[in-house]
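note to self: the first set is below, dont mix up w the second
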Amino acid sequence: MMTIDKDKVFKNSRLTYRLETLANNAISANDPLFVEKLGCNIREMRILRLIDDHPGIEFNEIMRISGLDRSLVSRLIRSLLEKTLILRVNNTEDARRYGLFTTDTGKTCRQLGRELSDAAEALLLQPLEPAEVEQLKALLGRLLSWVRSDDYQTGVQAMYGSFRGREER
């Protein structure tokens, strides 16, 4: 059986792969604790926080902000509704549209989730110096703004437009 050095693979991989791996590993380690202590997984807590921060937010806006796909957002919202952490209120002008609001139970869960998230993030960042943490947050913020920008999207289209694929080689 071949032994693969995961650390070496990680160090030689693309940045997007490394960021995704870091996030997935951290979530996998913490998710069971969130479920045990709060009754919600981390993704549910993210959606709950989004709804609590933006009372009346609609489904499509949650998809746009979270970057999650339609079916996953639908499942997460359904789960939060079943747990009575959020309410769905139909739009009076268009019955096909609805806003989402946090219940009192949801607000309590969100606050407890904030405390647990703060502790988990502090543990994740423990190997870094405070100045490094601030630098990391600033750099990630800049990269996210860039990736969401029209200039980046235009660049992606131009790059793919000029890329010679396997059929052209």
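second set (the one i keep forgetting abt)
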Amino acid sequence: MQLQTFNTTRTARYYCVGEPGPTIRHVWFCLHGEGQSVADFAAQLSNLVTPERLLILPEALSRYTLPPAPDGTLSTGATWFAASDLLPDLADLTNYLDSLAETILAACPPIPPLRCWAMGTVRRPPVAGWPATESTMNA
């Protein structure tokens, strides 16, 4: 038996706190921690919103159901990559974040400052090449 791979398109989710448009002067990409609900993370960042600042909160691509809250409510957590398949996961992640940045920045004034902010414990090296890839930097 031999493990094989192939590329596929999938649907990624993100929260946009603020509205893309001509008033935006700063775009922040905010990456949630491992297993953290991106909706909960968005709520924690609400005091950072200004008319000139746009917060983009991409959800990691590997989603799973978190244990129920005390009231029985279920929510979704996500992880950015698996240690067992690090390089393909990092490539997928870089493509995802580059595509999202290109889409968001197209709706904003030319070349707003771009920030990447992460929350949580980093158990692996940061994503290589992001946001410093050429397509992101020139978007």
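remember for set 2: Residues 66 and 72 are 11 Å apart (CA to CA).
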